[in-house]
Write a structure and sequence with these properties.
The chain contains 2 helices and 9 strands. By secondary structure, it is mostly beta strands. The protein has a 6-stranded antiparallel sheet, with no helix packed on it. Strands 6-5-8 form a 3-stranded antiparallel sheet, with no helix packed on it.
Length: 124
């Protein structure tokens, strides 16, 4: 079988491979060749500490995220104290060791490239 990198691929979030819905987050997952891509809709009030920390058994997210903010706003704070707010059109890179939360009343829609939101919700 030929390597998928030798062929054009087209996927659409209107037809994801999988959708996971939580109280304050919706994740649409797509496998694009060897790249995991997710569209994440963080509802107002979502936070890593409130949603993930209770079962992740770590004080911060230990996954690296490369992302693009489509709409809404999110804030990411590193364990070092460095903090940035991201909004529509922003590209971001969040190394392991961060917390995040949705800002404001509008949901934040974020496309994550390979940060593997595919494991979100899996208990360790």
């Amino acid at each position: 079988m030929a390597d998928s990198s030798e062929h054009l691929l087209r996927r659409n979030f209107d037809r994801p491979d999988e959708t996971r819905t939580y109280e304050d987050l919706r994740i649409d997952l797509i496998q694009l060749g060897d790249l995991n891509v997710s569209r994440n809709t963080f509802r107002s009030g979502w936070s890593w500490s409130g949603s993930v920390e209770p079962w992740a058994l770590t004080d911060s997210c230990q996954t690296r995220h490369s992302f693009y903010v489509v709409s809404g706003r999110i804030t990411i704070k590193m364990e070092s104290g460095e903090e940035l707010e991201f909004g529509p059109g922003d590209l971001g890179l969040a190394p392991p060791g961060h917390q995040a939360w949705a800002v404001g009343d509008e949901p934040a829609e974020v496309i994550d490239f390979g940060g593997c939101m595919c494991t979100y919700g899996e208990r360790r």
